[in-house]
Amino acid sequence: MDFPIDELMDLAQCRTWVERHLHPEGMKCPACGQSVEQARRFRQTRKSQLTVYRCQCGRTYNLYTGTVFEQHHLSPVQVVLLLRGIVKGESSASLSRELQVDYNTVLFLRHEIQANAEQAKPKDALVDLETESDEVFQHAGEKRHSA
Q: In terms of residue numbers, what domain contains 112?
């Protein structure tokens, strides 16, 4: 997954990117399935700066409804940078410090995202006779002893 960082420094662009990736068929009411166009803008959240919609059926929802980010109050910029950090293999501690988000929240979201990726992976083996992978040198949490 590519994260074009120069295109994602703006809140509106991050919001569009998150919507495109979390709701590929468009954002809809989780209760009745009507599109956002049939809903009305209800309010704007203070911390995450998301628009909350109220559907004709009475249900309220926002960009994160039905996703792992629901009830976490992250801004779209924080979500994009968190996903980018997870994909790049950055530690939860450094992501927590950089995004100014609680470490336990980052760790919980990382585990949820990884569990979702595990469920979504193909069950069939690769058909290729040969595969190629790059070397990865990543700190996996072991404590190093001094030399």
A: 11-120
Report if residue 135 sits inside a domain: no
State how far Cα 106 lies from the chain centre: 11
Q: What angle do CA 20, 106, 19 make, to 5 degrees?
A: 10
- Rounded CA gap, 15 and 53, in Å? 15
- Count the domains in the chain: 1
Q: Tens of pLDDT along 30-41?
A: 888 888 888 888
> What is the separation, in whole angstroms, between the first and last Cα of the chain?
38
Give the residue among 89, 86, 90 at the shortest CA–CA distance from 109.
86
For residues 39 and 34, give the distance between their C-alpha atoms in angstroms, rounded to a whole number: 8
Cβ contacts of 21 within 8 Å, gap of 6 or more:
1
Question: Residue 143 — very low, low, confident or very high, per pLDDT cuts 50/70/90?
Answer: low
The edge-to-edge listing of strands for the beta sheet with 60-61 is 40-44, 51-54, 60-61
**Does the residue 108 lie in any domain?**
yes
Q: Does the predicted model carry a pTM greater than 0.85?
A: no
CB neighbour burial string for 110-131, b if at least 16 within 10 angstroms, e if fewer: beebeeeeeeeeeeeeeeeeee
